[in-house]
Amino acid sequence: MYNDDVAVISRQRRIDSRARKRVRQVMSDKSYQTSPDAEVRDAHRALLLAEEERRRSPNDPKVLDAVAACHASAGDFDKAIELQTEAVNLCVDETKSSLLLSRLQLYRNQQPYLEHTSHVR
Q1: Which residues contact 77 (CB under 8 A, 6 or more apart)?
Q2: Would you state the torsion angle of the CA atoms of residues 11, 30, 89, 98, taken in this order, to the nearest 10 degrees?
Q3: CA-CA to 65 of 20 to 30 Å: which in 31, 41, 113, 119?
């Protein structure tokens, strides 16, 4: 029985690890549409990559947030609002929910989300 439990736990850890890697990849892909540098932004590529991850994790607020940002960057604010609203509704962390709501307001104002870079002096 012990070996079965260990095998189940080990398998679950591998699944969790793959899920975390996918979320990190989406967040990395998100830089294609949220970079303040216009030369880095590629809304079309970001949207393709984010939608692919959305098919795998349709109820993950982080993924929905990334896909919404892609749509906003591509100028599809209606879709961005729809997805961001869904992300807010699925989010259980109050602090993260507040961040998601602030992005939702951007999309309602027809503005894409762009990451801010901080410069160390």
Answers
A1: 71, 107, 108, 110
A2: 120
A3: 119
Helix, strand, coil % over all residues of the chain, rounded to 5: 75, 0, 25
Q: What is the pLDDT of residue 45?
A: 75
Alpha-carbon distance of 51 to 84, in angstroms, equals 14
From residue 45, give the alpha-carbon distance in Å to each of 20, 74, 117: 21, 10, 22
Task: List strand residue ranges (DSSP E) for 3-63, in order.
Answer: none
The domain 2-108 having CATH identifier 3.40.50.150: the answer here is: no
pLDDT single digits (tens) 52-95: 888 988 999 989 998 998 899 889 999 999 999 999 999 999 88
Q: What is the Cα–Cα distance from 52 to 102, expressed in whole angstroms? A: 25
Give domain limits for the chain: 2-108
pLDDT per residue as tens digits for the range 20-64: 555 555 555 555 555 555 555 567 777 887 888 889 889 999 899
